[in-house]
Every structure is written in structure tokens, then in C-alpha cells.
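Hi Y.,

Following your request, here is the sequence exactly as I used it, all 320 residues.
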Amino acid sequence: MKTKLLEMLLSGQYISGQEISNNLGISRTAVWKHINALREDGYSIDSQFGKGYRLLHMNEYVTSEKVLLGLKCKLFAGNILHFHEVESTNEEAKKFAERGYPEGTLVIAEKQIAGKGRMGRYWQSPSTGLWTSILLKPPIPPRDAPKLALLTAAALQTTLDKDFNIKAKIKWPNDLLVDNKKICGILTEMKGEMDRINYIINGVGINVNQDPADFPEELANTATSLKVIKGVEVDRLLLLQRYLETLEEFYLDFLRNGFERTRRICIENSHTIGNIVTIYSADKEYTGEAVNLGNDGALIIKINDQEIPFYGGEVSLRRR
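Below is the corresponding structure, written out as C-alpha cells. Let me know if you'd prefer a different format.
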């Protein structure tokens, strides 16, 4: 309802309460309540007796009603939960998954106070970034679940390239980098059984409009933002909408046709393949040349003339 009301107000003209009531099929009292709800979300709306309501300014947030405006998705974002502050969007999404929310449910937070990266690391999540998690229920075996992190990376890499002219590289298994600095982390978490997936939470954190001074000293040489790269602020709402549309396209193609499209994009835009890498896996350290990405998403590393697949771990690399 808030989305439909916002669509009417986007004309910038005064619209009478009666006209809104007639168009939305709700009472004048309900119109007033929805107008106040938009005001509480930060929208500036003027009201004048005899004229009605007029939108003066949008808010600065990536709210559910704004995401839905013009979004071309069939499966994703049918349910959107927007928060000003949460500990972690992944943790919030898990709560909705346990309550039976449908596939495609999206959680957005303006700020995370306990954002999570891989291996339990803290992820700095100020209000200038984009922090989202989406609920997936793919009909695939649990062994294929790790492919979804690479699929997400491929979808976001494609979005940044096509819609924002930003050439990002994919660092296996779940990061995007520009000029060797991290702009995005992906965290997929699964609940399932031996032979079936109950649900997957697909979390993405993107450094969008941070300034260099916003990064702590220990991240100054390893992290950057889209704003720093472009030299101007990037529209967080537009970025989220285009990313969701591309992710849905990739996801549905994966369910129909398999992993090859994602695999090809990850290879063509790899930050890892072709380099000497050290991978830390199962409390052991291995060093060799990353030579390929397997059909199952494994990183293939050549060690002493033997090609060995790795399905997880922490990778560091040096360029030749």
C-alpha cells in the first residue's frame, strides 16, 4: 500500500485525500495513517486543506516501497523487510525463514552493528553502504549450495560492469575487488539435512559511498568504495534494484541450465586464477598456482604438478 501511495505522490502535485482514497480503495482515515507512516520513514509530505497532500522530498533510505518502484523481478523482493539498524541482516533473514517466509524475501538494513563476514569476522557496516540478505529455497542438493556464493559474485560483477561501468574482479570464493581492494563480501549460510536444503540466506555487503577516511587504519590499504572508484556518490537504491534483477536472472538460469554460465563469468573475471596462491583449509596451508574453476565451483590449484580441488578456505595471492 505504501508503494502505491508513493507512486501517486511522485507526480509532485497536490493530490486530495479523496482521490487517494478512491484510487487505493481505502478510507480517508487509512489514507491519513499511511501518509503519517511515510512521514515517520523520513518522507517530507506537505498537506494543505482543500488541496491534499504533496511529496516535497524523498527520504535518504533504501526503503521497501522505494525498492519496489520500477523493480522488474518476479521471484525476488515480494516481501521486503527494511530496518534502520540491525546486528546482522543474515541473522534477521534467518528469523523470517524460520517463520515460513517465502523464497525471495529480502532484508535490508541501513546499518549493521554486528555485520558478519566469513569465518565469523566482523564486517564494518556504516549507513553509507548497502547491506542486504535474501532468502533462497533452491531445489538443489546441499553439496551444490556453495555455488550460490559464486553465482552472487557473478551477478554483482555483471551489474557493476553493465550498469555502473565498474570493472570488478571476483576473488574466490566470495569477494569482489577493484584495484586489489575489496568492495564487496558475500556470506551464504545454509540450513538443511543430508539430502535437502531447508533454506539458504544469501548475504551481501557492498561498500557504496564511504569516503577513504571512513575506513579504519587496518583496512585503508585493502578496502575501498564505489564512491572512491567513481569519484561521485552512487545511487544505493538503483544499485540494489539492478543487482536484484540480475541476481534473479542468474538464479533462475542456474536452476534451469546449471552452473556453466556462472563458472564462465567467474573465470573470465577472476582475481585468483592465474596467480600463485596460498590457501588455508582445514588448519593446513597449501601453496600453488590457481589454474581453473571446477564444474562444481572448486578452485583448482596446481601443486607439484598435481591439480587439486579446494572447496573452501582462505586464499591469499601474489601476482606474477
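DSSP finds nine helices and 16 strands in the chain.

Thanks again,
Q.
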